[in-house]
Write a structure and sequence with these properties.
Chitobiase/beta-hexosaminidase C-terminal domain-containing protein, Immunoglobulin-like, GH29D-like_dom, 1 helix, Jelly Rolls
Length: about 280
């Protein structure tokens, strides 16, 4: 008698399946014992961690670099230039007395060099006392921070925008803020501190305009806002016509919509701001 679909005679049906199972099981067993060797130079090191005691400082910031891998050297630069094997070797905490862009990579003779990690620290110059911020655009109810006071208190948020009350989150076509000083001050630039966290649909603004009594004195067009980038804090500096000013109006405009490469394409991006000051 034939078994339909198997092509085994009745006598073979009694022993054929166990035999097939035995043969298949033997093959699997043999394959599972096959050794696979992974060359260490195909393994890439993780990027080192960069920690700053304050990314916005008045006198000094202390920066530490860290990676737990025996035999690893961490190389770094402080001017944002690319890191290579000839860059300075990290040996202990770095003290920054001026604005710096820290970029670091990990090197090991047995592994591939890590990707670069980057963190910016900014020295806040000028007299900040008595500065008052006034919002003409209210932040979203879910991300109010401490209101306008958050923009002129010298306190930085972290890349975790849900931690603390430092960040003000907006989902508007335009954000307008007045910055008022107790007396006229000589000003050369305005700095706006923003967050980029594209995984959370937070993009840096596209345009920042500075005006005095309706007259434009400075503009920044930030072309990188539509490009894919890592999560980080940015200090966007807007040069202005140097002069003595007692009040500035800052207008911040986001991208009109999230770019096509992003899963949120076509919708309005978020803009997060935590500090604005003039120098």
């Amino acid at each position: 008698m034939n078994v339909p679909g198997l092509g085994l005679h009745s006598i073979g049906f009694r022993w054929g399946l166990p035999l097939l199972f035995f043969l298949f099981g033997t093959m699997v067993s043999c394959q599972s014992k096959k050794k696979v060797f992974l060359l260490t130079d195909s393994i890439q090191l993780a990027s080192p961690k960069i920690l700053a005691d304050s990314v916005l400082f008045r006198e000094m910031a202390t920066i530490t670099l860290h990676l737990e891998e025996e035999g690893t050297l961490i190389k770094y630069t402080l001017d944002g230039s690319e890191v290579d094997a000839n860059s300075q070797t990290y040996s202990g905490p770095i003290q920054a007395y001026n604005t710096a862009t820290v970029k670091a990579k990990a090197f090991h003779p047995a592994y591939r060099t890590s990707e670069a990690q980057e963190v910016g620290v900014r020295k806040q110059k000028g007299n900040l006392s008595g500065v008052e911020a006034k919002l003409h655009t209210e932040p979203h109810v879910n991300y109010p921070g401490n209101g306008a006071a958050s923009l002129a208190d010298g306190q930085k948020g972290s890349t975790n925008f849900r931690n603390g009350n430092h960040w003000l989150g907006f989902q508007e076509n335009r954000i307008t803020v007045d910055l008022r000083f107790p007396e006229s001050r000589n000003i050369e630039s305005v700095i706006v501190s923003v967050l980029q966290d594209q995984g959370s649909w937070i993009f840096s603004p596209e345009t920042i305009t500075i005006a005095v009594l309706g007259n434009q004195i400075g503009t920044l067009v930030f072309k990188e806002s539509a490009q894919a980038g890592e999560k980080k804090m940015l200090f966007l500096e807007v040069p202005v016509t140097t002069g003595n000013y007692k009040e500035l109006t800052i207008t911040i405009e986001p991208l009109s919509e999230i770019p096509d490469w992003h899963q949120g394409k076509g919708t309005m991006p978020w803009v997060f701001i935590d500090e604005i000051w003039a120098e």
